[in-house]
Amino acid sequence: MTTKETLKKYFGYDSFRGGQEELTSSILSGKDVLGIMPTGAGKSICFQLPAIMLEGITLVVSPLISLMQDQVRALIQSGIPAAYINSSLTYRQVEAALYNAKNGKYKLIYVAPERLLTPDFLTFARSVKISMLTVDEAHCISQWGQDFRPSYAEIPEFINQLEERPIVSAFTATATKRVREDILSLLKLQNPTVLVTGFNRENLYFEVQEPSNKMQALFDFLHENRDKSGIVYCFTRKTVEEVCEEINHQGHSALRYHAGLGDRERHQNQEDFLFDKVQIMVATNAFGMGIDKSNVGFVVHYNMPKDIESYYQEAGRAGRDGSEATCLMLYSGKDVVMNKWLIENAKDTLSVDEETATKLKERDYRRLRDMTFYARTTDCLRGYILRYFGESPKPHCGNCSNCGTKFETIDITKESQKILSCIARTGERFGAGVIIDVLKGSQSKRIKELEFDKLSTYNISQEDVHTLHSMIEFLVQQDYLHRDDGQYAILSFSSKSQNVLKGKVSLEMKLPKEVKSKVKENAKTRKSGTAILPPDREELFNSLKILRKQIADVQGVPPFVIFYDKALIEMCVQLPESEKQFLDISGVGDAKLAKYGERFLQIIKEYKKEKSIKTEPIMSKSVGQKSRKDNLKSLILPSEDVLKKIEIVEKPSQITFIAQAINLVMAEHECSTVSPIKISEWLMSQGYLKISEQEGKRTKIPSEKGLRFGISQEKREREKAKYSVNLYPSSMQEFIIEHICDILEFQTREKSKK
Length: 754
Ligand code: ADP
Ligand code: ZN
Description:
binds zinc ion; 21 strands; 45% helix; 5 domains; 33 helices; Rossmann fold; seven-stranded parallel β-sheet; Arc Repressor Mutant, subunit A; binds adenosine-5'-diphosphate; alpha/beta
């Protein structure tokens, strides 16, 4: 059987996700691997699939009991024999498991790192064929990671003790260079295939709000998302308690989770959430690692976490099944203060020498700053995160609150002068908080004690606090202000500051035109790449859910272990009749077909009969969308599949070539074609190009924004005439292709104007 056939047979998936195929085949060719993939990208398949295909046993070292249980549960459901050995088992149970393992009963055995070097386990391991050792959450081996686990260091010694060195595969979601290097060297990987997959999770929608009343903002959000299951992360136990109580008052069903609760309650609450008995989990960051709940529809951060790594990992728990999900962060300045307090009082710096402690602290402040930038940026949020992880994303994702908000460019020269002069008058000794207090005329005791209320810059700003913060952020990023890396983030002059004060430069900045509830706005207009439940199939969906729940209850597993919501939705859309059609549903493999196929097919059949549906199933994915508006009827827009065929070249290219590549494919699929000039004009309307007049000639050149997104200019000469052309990098080409429908509509509208 090929890897692809095995994937379908056991896991029910038709195709590999990014990175899975490379890693799988690398392992099968006998090589060590290190796979770095974001949460939810599908790491497990990368070792589970080869484990099925290799002879002998695969040992999986895993840091958490819940993680092991989840994976083993899911494997057994898919017809793959697996077991775990950890402290949740009695001595007898461990013995029995080892006995079975020795007799070849399991393909995969999950084990905690502490157990590896125990005599019983070593004896066992030396007596069987271990083809592969997989280190899950491999970052736990690094002191620089977030979850350092000393016993991970024993793994190499364990490998040494084996008769034959197995293939070693390691996986993590942590991408920093330092951690990656640690994994490679500490685990002693031999000539490994290292694969970092893209960190983008397309189905996640990102939004940041800075509400004046967080609780109210949360209520509003939950109200809009009543039918979904989700997690609300809070900074402290106390906040968890408050928020949990309040939202229960509002009629939602929520449970709490934090380190202050007893093991019993924590475990019970977690199970209830996994088993869909409650909808919302309110938790500190103690909740999460190893929560493989597939149908988490939203993750709200009630407070800003300490760094982007934590944020992305926690937010990434949403939408694991690939369905659309929302990641909302409710930001306030207080979150920064709390985080700083935590850095100053961090426990893990107690056990290290002073120099290291200082370094760690600096690192944490830097990370916190990057996190704060995220909360305040006006650029694409997804782009910001991906750049943080070292990728070069497209300028606009179209699926975050900033991409959905209208910004206007305003002149902030005057306001910047006020800010700078206030910094000068207070002696360049304070952070943004104090400066803004002075500018806004704060009555606080501290300001009065410092006698800042007597300064000429006291109470001279009409802007709100949020806008002032954004402006200071902008000045720092543009180097018109210096901010030190210490705890107080003190602002002082840079070499460029005087230019602003003296009026030598004028400054422009993008600010949101109006701050509305973007989550709601966007929920309506968001495009979707995943199957959506048609409204008239809700009844069927509910019947399938009930059946799923019955089966799950009998087996004592969470419903999603039987089928993901996504699979049920696909059933509702495609209405399969035969076993073969049932196998086409994503997530249905041989084992699940055999176990559950008949019962689910029966319900679908009855439903169809009752509604007398004979026609073809509704198509879920976009199939050549025809036209959007009436006046644009003559347009034939391409489907996503057609767009995928357009070639993107690595070399920065001219717009005429890009248009050619597009039109080639468009013509072949009988779609409307686009003129290169209209593409340029559209780019101009989006602010990527601007008009420059030189020697009486008007040409389009990259704007500052265009330059930032990689458009470059090249000087050329032909028959003595000098001219310049704009070149677009591959990321811009992708951006253009993705917006081709907008551009075509733009073209039609422009034409009809004439
Ligand atoms: P990770 O460990 O990287 O966080 P998982 O291995 O738990 O992610 O996979 C995340 C989700 O993606 C799971 O629900 C899994 O079933 C699903 N998945 C993995 N690979 C595929 C695939 N090739 N096609 C469809 N879904 C997949
Ligand atoms: Zn975006």
